[in-house]
UniProtKB/TrEMBL annotation:
It is found in: Nucleus. The keyword Zinc-finger applies. GO terms for cellular component: nucleus. It holds the Pfam family zf-C2H2. GO terms for molecular function: DNA-binding transcription factor activity, RNA polymerase II-specific; zinc ion binding. Residues 29-56, 57-80 form the C2H2-type domain. Coiled coil: none annotated. It comes from Culex quinquefasciatus (Southern house mosquito). Keywords: Metal-binding, Nucleus, Repeat, Zinc, Zinc-finger. This is C2H2-type domain-containing protein.
């Protein structure tokens, strides 16, 4: 299979998976604290973190916390564009917590 065909299959699978989230029958994971429902267990877990104020992804520069890694990445891109989000996330993954100034 050539690369372009492989990419098309991945995109189709991604679209199919996304469309399933809009199907009323797919909303089988219900939040125990509100009426929200989700098609995927991982989406529910992320949502529940917001209720619990569990914010394990913390910006090393300003200490803002986020419930999901992608939210921290967006924060870094918007508020600290001078730093590479990749470097920051690598430091978080390895539990290194020095100042971002050390990463540049």
């Amino acid at each position: 299979m050539d690369v372009s065909m492989h990419m098309k299959l991945l995109l189709c699978h991604g679209l199919e998976r996304h469309m399933q989230t809009h199907s009323p029958n797919s909303q089988k994971f219900r939040c125990p604290q509100c009426p929200q429902t989700f098609a995927r267990k991982t989406a529910l877990e992320i949502h529940v973190r917001n209720h619990e104020k569990n914010r394990p992804y913390v910006c090393l520069e300003c200490s803002c916390g986020y419930s999901h890694r992608t939210l921290l990445t967006k924060h870094i891109q918007m508020k600290h564009p001078q730093y590479s989000a990749q470097v920051v996330l690598q430091r978080i993954d390895t539990n290194e917590l020095p100042s971002l100034a050390d990463a540049c």
